[in-house]
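Quarterly update from the structural biology core.
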Amino acid sequence: MRLILILFLFFSSFSIAQNNYPQDYFRSPLDITLMLSGTFAELRSNHFHSGLDIKTQQRVGLNVYASASGFVSRIKISHFGYGKALYITHPNGYTTVYAHLNKFSPDIEAYVKKHQYEKESFEIELFPNAGDLKIKKGDIVALSGNTGGSGGPHLHFEIRDKEERPINPMLFGIDIKDSINPIITSLYAYPMDENSFINKSNTKKKLRLIPIKNGDYVVENIEAYGNIGFGIETNDRQNLTANKNGVYNIQTFVNGNKNFELDFRRFSFSETKHLNRLIDYEHYKTKKSRVQKLFNQNNPLSLYKDVLNDGILHIKDSTYSVYKIKVGDFENNNTWATVTIKGSKIDSIKSEPKKTTPYFINTNETTNLKKGKVSVDFYKDTFYDNFYIDFDVKNDTLLLHEDIIPAKKSFTISYDVSAYSDKDKSKLYIARLLGYKKFPAYSSTKRKGNLLTTYTRTLGEFALATDTIKPTITPINFKKGQWLSNFRYLKIKIDDEGSGISNYRATVNGTWVLMEYDYKTKMLTHDFNDGLITETKNNLKLIVTDNVGNNSTFETVFYRK
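Predicted structure, tokenized:
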């Protein structure tokens, strides 16, 4: 039996190690030792991380190199998300992605700015033809940056296949030094139904991890009965950084037989939302840590492999079972945790009655909830499970359960504002109330007649909020009438206390000029090297509008030779 288990584990590890992706085709996108702040498929808020976050020595401006020859197939610039991003398609069918860039190479930068000025927009998405921007392997295509939703200077790097599915770049030979085993920080056991028990309880239990000398763990013995599952908190580190990153593979075995695997090597963007079903979502929202469930509850993720009985154990009375968890990183550094389970049937214990409300969500049906001037529409298949939902409206505040249940797709919240005056209703928006102070955060609000509507995937509290305050505009590096002949940049800070900035428009002498916007610093920046400002006396006009239509206008004069 022991020999069979050893051979099974060997061939299991061998199958993981198999790699059909081209090696030595893609070079590193940076000419420095690669250190990661984020790994592929790492668990993030509402999504899996789709690439490698490569550290750039805590600064912007490092040369970014094309990983292989090809052509620029897409360029996208946005205030949020990837910021400035470049996509290069290669003859072998793969596409590499470089994001949070500071600038593009001169040819690409000129191509982008030409289209930005034509469209009079900083945010832009372009799809060049195959012959427009050809690239050779090793060409400098950009400078690294900190644009978009980046939390610090780094390069986000991806490799995607023909179907636009991101794949772990390390499978292509991108080398990261790693000889450190993953860490298991906590382990939980879950009774899967009302007739299942763990240590004579029908509720989730945190189990005590006991580290042993080789870096593995044994877990306190448990008594159980019925259908049970496990969840794990785990992370990985590489040699040169202290970052706690995601792992590459998790497998479980029951009495030597494999019953579950999570393989983080490839996924599709259409399924990344199901991360909230993979994790214990309620635990994450209440404890701020992500427990990965080692069982599948009607989750369509493609990351699941070799799942037996959905990864759920059926524990019978008077039995002993050994449950093993293997957590691995890309370099096959592995950590094991072992749980011994004694099957022990107990008489049913009195459990707390499940909470019910007047409102029930059946995932197979469309549900409309309405009270007063507020209505909520849940479409069929919005949630994974049926449940009783809390619903109430007090004044203009909607109490819509607690944000502890993940949604598959968006639902609709609508407010009838016909009771408000035309003047007042024009300043209203739907806000999600955050934190114990109930801070109103703008939720993208559509207006149609007397109806305000927002689409969201998050339960919680919502309210009508009013914004009557205009955005603020503050010049940073110049003042009225100043000579700016020796200046490279014009910088202006814009801000809005209420609904947030919606758009802005800047002109000089009546002609639109490009202002790059960094929402993290709230800074607008114009580069005089664009060459659009050629007059000596220049009249600058900037209009900034928030999400309910309040706008501010800033006008000044500056001089250049």
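The helical segments are 2-17, 106-119, 275-278, 281-287, 422-425.
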